[in-house]
């Protein structure tokens, strides 16, 4: 199981596999995620291919940035800091969504991106950006799972 998959599993387990309070904001998300959702999450034929990986990376990063809680800060290198979960881990803002309309959409967006990178000979830079996204999403999922476990959040 990948780190992102493990993080998603931790969230689902900690949330007792119940649906989140609302849906993850979809404004600005990569269109491929919407296509996948419209296909009943892969139960119908769909095409979530990514013709322009660089464009997808920019759209994904803008969407990811818009989902961050207010306490999260970017470092001087422009990347999100991962040194603490802020507010004692209690507030995750728009990311506080799980289930099929929540964190699963984030994981799927990374999956589509990773598939598009596979076999590309000129994707070294793109691969590094994708790996950074995977690392940040994994950190977020681990933090949310820790929050649920530590504070025994009731759903």
Structure explained in plain terms:
The protein is mainly α and 155 residues long. It has one domain (3-151). Helix content is 50%, strand content 0%. The chain contains 5 helices and no strands. It has helices spanning 3-14, 31-38, 53-67, 103-117, 124-151. Helix 1 runs parallel beside helix 5 (124-151), helix 3 (53-67) packs antiparallel against helix 4 (103-117) and helix 3 (53-67) runs parallel beside helix 5 (124-151). It is globular and about 40 Å long. The model has no long low-confidence stretch (mean pLDDT 78).
Topology, element by element:
Layout: H1 3-14, H2 31-38, H3 53-67, H4 103-117, H5 124-151
Which characteristics define this entry?
single chain; globular; 155 residues; mainly alpha
Task: Write a compact overview of the structure shown.
By secondary structure, the protein is an all-alpha fold. Helix content is 50%, strand content 0%. Helix 1 runs parallel beside helix 5, helix 3 packs antiparallel against helix 4 and helix 4 runs antiparallel to helix 5.
Tell me the β content.
Answer: under 5%
Low-pLDDT residue intervals, each spanning 5 or more residues: none
The secondary structure category is mainly alpha
Average pLDDT confidence is 78
Largest sheet: none
Label the overall shape.
globular
Number of strands: 0
Which bin fits the share of residues in helices?
A: 40-55%
Number of helices: 5
- How many domains, in number, for the residues? 1
